[in-house]
Amino acid sequence: MTLEARYFDGRTTRLSTVDLSLADDHLVVAGDGIALRVPFAEIKVDEKLGRAARRLRFADGAFCEVSDLAALDILLASAGHRDGLVDRLQRHMKVALPAAVICIALAAATWRWGLPWLATIGAHHMPPAIARTLTDQTLRVLDRGQVLLPSKLTEDRQADITARYRALRLPEGGAPAGKLLFRESPALGANAFTLPDGTVILLDGLATGLGDDGEILAVLSHELGHAQEHHGLQLLLRSSAVGAFWTFYLGDVSQLLAAAPTVLMHAHYSRDLEQQADDFGAALLEANGMAPALLADALEKLATLHHGPAETSAYLASHPSTPDRIASLRSR
Amino acid sequence: MDEVLGALRPAPYTEEPVQFTGRGGDYFRIWIVNLLLTIVTLGIYSPWAKVRRLQYFYRHTELAGSSFDFHGKPLRILIGRAIALAMVLVYNIAVRMQSVWTLVVIAVIALIAPWLLRNSLRFRLYNTSWRGTRFHFRGSVGGAYRVFLLNGVLSVITLYLLAPFAHQRLKAWQHNNSYFGKTPFSFRAGVGDFYATYLLLALGIVVFTIVALMSGIGGMMGSLAKPGGMINPKAVFVTFAILWAAIIVIGLSIGSVFYATLTNLVWNNTSLGEHQIECRMSWPKLVWIAFSNFALVVVTLGFYSPWAMVRLYRFQAESFTLLRTSDLTEFVDAEPEAVGALGEEAASVFDFDIAL
């Protein structure tokens, strides 16, 4: 059996059309003034990449180029040559499709478990100075942008809530370390939130809307749960990682687009973290001689308060499945 | 009379179009297997994947019935990547520290960058061959400091007024120091040609900025239109969505037009020995490919990318024609050289784009 090939000497671009054949473990190259007999063991065979011509390379830099891949396979098989494992794997759809499924599964697993795990570790090891800087910056942006306005609660009322907040005893002992700040916000309505360093912001809408001190403390306990587990930092780390990934994945054309998925997936993130904060809050209330049901009462009241225009429901939008949470707290 | 005219006529060129024979479906199988191997080895396999990718594209690119080839060794690339990664780490730590060391590290990186970029050019060309003869880059280290560092600083301090000049000098240096075997490439586009192309870019950026600003302001007014100045999250989201869409649409269009125009300018003014290179890259087609590729890659969560890469590469490669004056058998390879991959990997990690 002979096989047509193009022979190049590796030093010039002169092309010679030759015939290849096998004879006693040797490759015989003949034609166009070329007559070679090369031991097959000394020949390096290129991978079969798609439809590209394959090259048989000789030790001196010369090579033969073969376009008839099927005929070459037969020649290689009879010479006892076996292609590498990856070379063989990357030819078939029956390998490619499972590989695609495994890639998707690995990506999903990283998304669901790997990223939160890394974010938790990262958040717990973040130097306090960075958390403080982040808090100061966030607060400054919110204050300057008039998203947050000075609180209209009386100083006595503020001092009263602060005193009860300070009197809370954490499970591991001691009072809450972070500051409690009061603000008013038409944009955010009845709300309370935690900043990266553990500072809790209580908005007037929530304080007046709930009225009952026990319920206010219940919401603050829930927020302390966020602070305790560094949820703010975790979210920040996760969204940075997701942003970096999308930037890498979609390429540099769309760096700005990268932020979109981060924002869109934010809501999903919160579910586990809310559960953690609820658990912490409930345990904290019990440890301080109060009923975990207070948090459920507060959530219920907030749900009715927020049963209004869409733009004021921000607090609940980031706290999904409120009825489930209320039920879970009541069953304690 | 006829003889005089005959002598004035250009040399008899034969058109030799570049052809690409790769297919998305074939490349998908190679891509996905190498992607999976890269993921499960936490990236260590990526140099092997990179070599396969380049080999796939080079070996399906044909000129006069013979294909190109890539000879880079994965292990070399892995070492290059490890060093580059270490440099990125040092750089990031230095930037965080915000002390005198930050400046020292940035200065050191600025000083070695031209050397790395020159090595990157050498590595790429040296590891590319056609019919067994390799390409070479012989630009000097001094030249690299002149075109990357000196001209770079010049264009920054003149507020980029000298950027087209710097770009022309870079391409001239790059192409005038490139060889196929022993045969030199030569470059003849002047500074004026580059200024004309950049003027087009400047106009595009002005239009881009105006449209982006207008959509931004429009969205902002929409979101603040409510009485009491309440922030409407939906309106804010819509504003950003419009802004992103505008930036992507205009960015992709300007990028494509600029890329096509500049590629044509550079290659139509480049010759290899006696042979001329012709590049007829159509920018409307490039814009269309950029948009449809982008949309399909996003919609398929990235699984269209092998097809997208093949499509884009085919379009780019097939824009080229070699106007040959001989049967292309006269090229002779030069002496082999030892070229490390550090430059190429460091350049790609630090995101220096020298593709144009």
Concise structural overview:
The complex is a heterodimer of chains A (332) and B (356). By secondary structure, chain A is of the alpha+beta class.
Protein architecture, described:
The complex is a heterodimer of chains A (332) and B (356). Chain A is an alpha+beta fold. Chain A has helices at residues 69-78, 85-89, 93-124, 128-144, 155-167, 204-210, 213-228, 231-250, 259-287, 293-305, 314-317, 322-330, and strands at residues 3-8, 16-23, 26-31, 34-39, 44-45, 54-57, 63-66, 149-150, 180-184, 192-194, 200-203. Chain A contains 12 helices and 11 strands. Chain A has a 7-stranded antiparallel beta sheet with strand order 4-3-2-1-7-6-5, covered by helices on one side. In chain A, strands 8-9-11-10 form a 4-stranded mixed beta sheet. Chain A starts with a strand and ends with a helix. Chain B is an alpha+beta fold and 356 residues long. Chain B has a domain at 71-181 and 339-356. Chain B has 12 helices and 11 strands. Chain B has helices at 2-8, 24-40, 46-59, 74-97, 100-126, 141-157, 163-176, 191-224, 233-268, 283-299, 305-317, 342-349, and strands spanning 14-17, 19-20, 61-63, 66-70, 128-130, 133-137, 178-180, 183-187, 270-272, 275-279, 320-324. Chain B has an 11-stranded antiparallel beta sheet with strand order 1-11-10-9-8-7-6-5-4-3-2. Chain B is globular, with a radius of gyration of 23 Å. The chains are: A alpha+beta (332), B alpha+beta (356). Chains A and B meet through α3 of A and α2, α3, β4, α9 and α10 of B.
